[in-house]
Write a structure and sequence with these properties.
The chain is an alpha+beta fold and 454 residues long. It contains 19 helices and 16 strands. Helix 16 links the parallel strand 12 and strand 13. It is elongated.
Amino acid sequence: MAQKYTIPKGTRDFSPEEMARRNYIFSAIQSTFKKYGYFPIETPAMENLSTLMGKYGEEGDRLLFKILNSGDFLKNLDSKDIENKNLGKVTAAIAEKGLRYDLTVPFARYVVQHLNEIAFPFKRYQIQPVWRADRPQKGRYREFYQCDVDVIGSRSLLNEVELIRIIDDIFKELSINVVIKLNNRKILTGIAEIINAPEKLTDITTAMDKIDKMGVEKVYEELRQKGLDEDTINMLEPVMNLSGNNTSRLNCLKELIGSTDAGSQGVQELQYIMELTTQLNLKAEVKVDQVLARGLNYYTGTIIEVVAQDVQIGSICGGGRYDNLTGIFGLPDVSGVGISFGADRIYDVLHELNLFPEEVLSATDVLLVNFGEKEAAYSLGILEQLQLAGVKAELYPDSVKMKKQMKYAHQKKVGYVLLIGEDEMNTGIYTLKNMKTGEQSKGTIVEILAIFNT
């Protein structure tokens, strides 16, 4: 019986059609990044585990893909650690590297390592795959692309406003209606302080970050499991159930947590950003979401999350400000802020809403039919003229039946077919067939080029 080959769960092959659609997304994102003055960088697929571990919280550490050491990876392993199921020591002994979990931590490492080559504030973008050992489900994969844009070396909140503009520009171009949710980590710190549970900040934010998936009651249940008593949970309710427009939410937050230093500063920062965004001509709705946490431990200020209005798929973009990320690599007091676009989820949204333009799927504008050796040799000159003029053109390589060549053009979604037989060679007047309408027209190469240039 022949072996059945498969790929790992949570990974995918991409067909030419899917790649054309993905490249459409990447192009829209990349062109916008460039428009705002960001430069590209790349980092390795694998990093030392010492770079990655401890940066994403306990849950993130569990989702890191570890890479076995080369050669005898068992040589440093103590058998007692296996017997005692000491997974931390076992992992440290057999794996020194891991696949990157995101692009932000490698970026922080890059900044520190290349410090003398960088002009601050440093504006970079990065479009590369990341890996997470998560449970595969709709919109959640183990290998997926992130499209990150960050500015580091500046504490100005104008950077947050610029990122909001970038988000709006990209989703406007892709015709996706989105809501941009904003919060501030200092607000979350203020909430933890006002309920007298500052030591539970991570537990509170991790649970609150799941409110859209689990609902309020299950969030409360998780908080109980983390050790919060009923009185403390009851103190959380006014924050969890806050409603109204952005102004009323900010005013309520000011009343609830304004007495704390962190909470007061967080509300002021968020209020400043909201005031500036109201002056912009944004298509997206910008909304204060006081329970937004985004679960990553390195955020210290603004938190951003973007969701599609017309598809239930989770966040399709998110990020925030981090003041201490480079500090863990030996470079303190360098603040940064950035966002990451989830290309795979954006793809799913565009596909579900049928928003991919038809022309994206066509790799070829015109196919030259092959009528035989003499005609093919002649057609090479015409092919060259078309390609030099920027027309995506190809000559069918084999002299086979017309039906087969037309089927090929149809399957590739080719826009036009150019017929150059003996009569056309003698007259210089060629036949062009529109594959969508079936209409045929005749013209010189100059006239045909004019059709593609209109």
